[in-house]
Amino acid sequence: MLHLGNSMRYIRMWVQKNYCRIRIAVDGFGKRCISFVCGNRSTETGLKLWEEIKDIPVSFYCWDYWKSYEAFIPPEKHLQTKAETFTTCCAFSKYSF
């Protein structure tokens, strides 16, 4: 609230917070950035990152336990863990990026 002089009038000030998250895909062995997208925590933002990295030959992907990832990552390549996920997504490959 904003106080205006001695008249004891107040104006309520509402602040809208707009958050933007940067989702990063990192080579888990080399610790190098593969790709990134900006957005929110929606499945749509996750899909944008997935579209960027899905054709890269990797052994498996490490993502956290966010439920939306199950919608687009193949279960045979999806390792849900916090231990290996030092950023949003880690991709582990025998190939060099």
TrEMBL record:
This is IS1 family transposase.
